[in-house]
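Structure representation.

___
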Amino acid sequence: MLLAQPAQKKAQYTYVSQWGVPRGMWAEYEKSAAVDVDILGKAVVDGTLVSFGTYSVLAHQEGQPTHGIWFSAMSMAGLMKGLEALRAAPQSPVLGSSKHSDVILRSTDYNGHAGTFKNGYLRVGTWNYKAGASDPGGQVTKATMSGMFEKLLDEGALHAYQIDTETVHSADPGAVNLVIIANGAEGIDKFDAAIDEMQKTNPAGEKAFGSLFTESGHRDMLARVDMMTHK
């Protein structure tokens, strides 16, 4: 049985800036991130953005990002205004010594608690469709996962979640990202327990979700959220 699906929301756009910072420069990077936090915080207050956060990757991979920052808006215009505000600020020399990549995402399935938090854990699961599989409008993914995310949000296990896809493709089209920001490490445990429970109590939904995606194309990212603000 698939869970009831929340009504579709207005599209939300998210910009993720990822940095592969040499280990000896992590402290310097974190100082430079404080400037971005000030800029993006003002953009949330004036309504340009609806949320932002900074994070430090916990499970490192050779050549992959170690740190990042994200910010979200309810239009591409708002997103670009936030980006230009960041680009207008003086840049720390550490950024010139770090590998860099950006991702621009779109979501119509998201929610979060208002406030500023410093105890979050960011977990991103990226799934690729099997050959010939499709999920028009993300119906199965939303029906299977969104109800669980909303329940965890209501219980306080999550600060926020979103299900998104790239709107400017820098990877293979068709990948789906399941994104949660857990309320402390305990929130990660509660999320894992909810996945186990869904497999027991909603096997039809779990099977429907599993039929869409290939295990070989699945990737996870876990990061410590240094701070985040959600309007």
Remarks:
- The domain at 10-108 is CATH 3.30.70.100 (Alpha-Beta Plaits).
- The chain has a mean pLDDT of 91.
- Residues 210 and 227 are 33 Å apart (CA to CA).
